[in-house]
Amino acid sequence: MKGKKYELLKAFDCQNGMPMEVKNAFFESTHATNDVYLEWDVLDKSYYSETLPDAQIDNRKTVDNWLIENDCEKGETILIKRWW
Predict the structure, then answer these.
(1) Strand runs (DSSP E) across 1-84, as ranges?
(2) Within a 10 A sphere around the Cβ of 22, how many other Cβ atoms?
(3) Which of 22, 51, 53, 62 might form a disulfide with 66, Cβ 3.0–4.6 angstroms?
(4) Which residues, including other chains, have CB under 8 Å from residue 34's CB and lie 6 or more apart?
(5) What confidence score (pLDDT) does residue 16 get?
């Protein structure tokens, strides 16, 4: 597969290992269907703009802080499996 570039991303499962407070914040800050993987940019400041409601910004920060505590870096793109 000459010319193809692949990227390895860290992956998290919202139902396994995420504390309830973080999981709830994740569900409230995303609006996707069941059983999908979402790309998440850790501490992406564009999500903290003034156009978003404060509650959505707070949810995003809750998830970002938990991800940083779990070996993610600022600016890193990771995957989170969203299912219920």
Answers:
(1) 11-13, 36-41, 77-82
(2) 21
(3) 22
(4) 82, 83, 84
(5) 93
Length of the chain: 84
* Predicted model pTM: 0.86
Rounded to the nearest 5°, which phi and psi values hold at 71? 75, 25
Q: Which residues pair with 41 in a beta bridge?
A: 77
Which residue do the tokens 């409601």 mark?
53
Q: What is the torsional sign of CA 15, 18, 19, 20?
A: negative
d(CA 79, CA 40): 6
Chain segment 2-50, per-residue pLDDT in tens: 777 888 999 999 999 999 999 999 999 888 888 999 999 999 877 777 6
